[in-house]
Amino acid sequence: MEKALKKYQETNEKLRALGLAMFLNGWDTATEAPRGSMAHRSGQIGTLSEMTYRLSTDPDYEAAIETLFQHREELDDILHHEIELARKRLVKMKKVPIEEYVAYNRLMAEIYPIYVEAKQTSNYALYKPHLLKVIEFQKKYLGWEKTPELQGYDILLDEYEPEYGTKEYDAFFKTLKERLVPFAKAVSRKKLKYNAAFTKKTFPKEGQREFAKYLQTVMCFDPDRTVIKESEHPFTSGNGCTDVRITNHYHENDLTSAIFSAIHEMGHGLYELQIDPALDETNSGGGVSMAMHESQSRLMENMIGRSEVFWRTHLPKLQELFPKALGKTTLDDFVKHVNRVSRGFIRTEADELTYSIHVMIRYEIEKGILSGRVDVEDLPSVWNKKYKQYLGIVVPDDKRGILQDVHWSQGSFGYFPTYSLGSAYAAQIYHAMAKDVDIDAAIASGTIRPIADWLKEHIHRYGSTKYPKEILRLATGEDFNPNYYVDYLIQKYSKIYGL
Ligand SMILES: [Zn+2]
Question: Do 21 and 48 form a contact (C-beta atoms < 8 A)?
Fold first, then answer.
């Protein structure tokens, strides 16, 4: 067992070093690398990926995991959990025939440019045969990975959010369907009145970058351990809790887009910054799951960043940076603008209230596809029917319908629901935090320090040493309950819209 532990840890150290090279490459590719460098670089990345693959499938490493798994009761809690997850991954990987794995990776590389072209030209027929192949693989995969505990779509859902399957998600989305869908329809029949003149102004990027720097202090985004740069799409990346990086994209004709992207990514980043530093030397560092990560970004973006008290505190600074464009904007105008509801076609542009309805539609469709109840032939019409039913809008073309998300062309089935689950976690976490922390007073004090401290103590420090369900239970004292989310939304938007 001692030998196995040594092998396990030595290999992890090497894998983490390769991970650093891959992270730096990914970051550099997205932010600064000259476009002309890609061809030469891609060969080197290929080599790095191959080294990573070889190392993580090394028979001695696998044998070490197996030995440690057999003796798991003798391990400490952190290692016990880690080995359980490592073994699960290993067992799953071995069930996929190597030639199928290679063929699938080839398909993934081929389909992306086809997807992009199909989206640009709104041509579902072009995409359909390739999507069909992805789905065929997914179905085969579900056959290989079937166990007495997990079958069908549940296998994929569990990969993105452990211990969550159709039973949990069905109950979650049923609550949304019964309570949120009718409420969102009622809200969208009302018009929000405010002076939107400032939204027609121009906001030079220099001022926006300055405000992002200001937000860094507000959001406790430690400048000694973080970097903010620019990329096409905002994202968070990093290497342990001492190197957390985010990007943003500034639009001169849209001030609020970059502000809320910054707050969102800083929410992800704060999670990584506040994980127990000792975990950086293990495989249990990093946020625990997709949904828990998204809960941290959305709590900051929507519940903190779109609140009235946040802008009562920080609008003066923004006005100081853009005196001409924002001089006449009132707090009420600004807060209403950043909380306006509109039933749109595009998920990534959706407001806080309707966002999860977009996700619910994708969940229902994925479930239908994988159970064979939805035919790929009929996907655009199934999609459009659901948009009419749940959001009351008529999708004009497939570009703004079935072709808008890249996920399925990457084989990511089961990913979407975590976006909504994260928002729902956020509401439950906020509710628990409000019992210990005077949240409004904390925001008004200028930085969110008391909020950040509470999140560190109750969620962040654990990294991925436990299952997300357990962390949620430790933080909130109860199991997941979607009603906190719906209650929060109904209360907030009833007030804004005077319902
Ligand atoms: Zn996010």
Answer: yes
How many helices and strands (H and E) does the chain possess? 22, 3
**In angstroms, what is the span from residue 297 Cα to ligand 1's centroid?**
6
Query: Per CATH, the architecture of 146-499 is what?
Result: Orthogonal Bundle (1.10)
Phi, psi of 229 (to 5 degrees): -130, -170
Partners of 62 in the β-ladder? none
The CA-based angle 113-117-120, given to 5 degrees, is 140
Domain boundaries, the chain: 2-94, 146-499
Q: How far apart are CA 204 and CA 216, in angstroms?
A: 19
Strands 236-238 and 244-248: antiparallel
- Taking every pair of Cα atoms in the chain, the longest distance, rounded to a whole number of angstroms, is 70
**302-316: per-residue pLDDT in tens?**
999 999 999 999 999
Those residues of the chain that have pLDDT short of 50 are: none
Taking the C-alpha atoms of residue 294 and residue 425, their distance in angstroms, rounded to an integer, is 9
The Å distance, Cα 298 to ligand 1 centre, comes to: 7
Residue 457 Cα to ligand 1 middle (Å): 21
pTM of structure: 0.95
Going 38 to 41 to 43 to 45, the CA torsion angle's sign is: negative
- What are 436-465's pLDDT values in tens digits? 999 999 999 999 999 999 999 999 999 999
Q: Which residues are catalytic?
A: 265
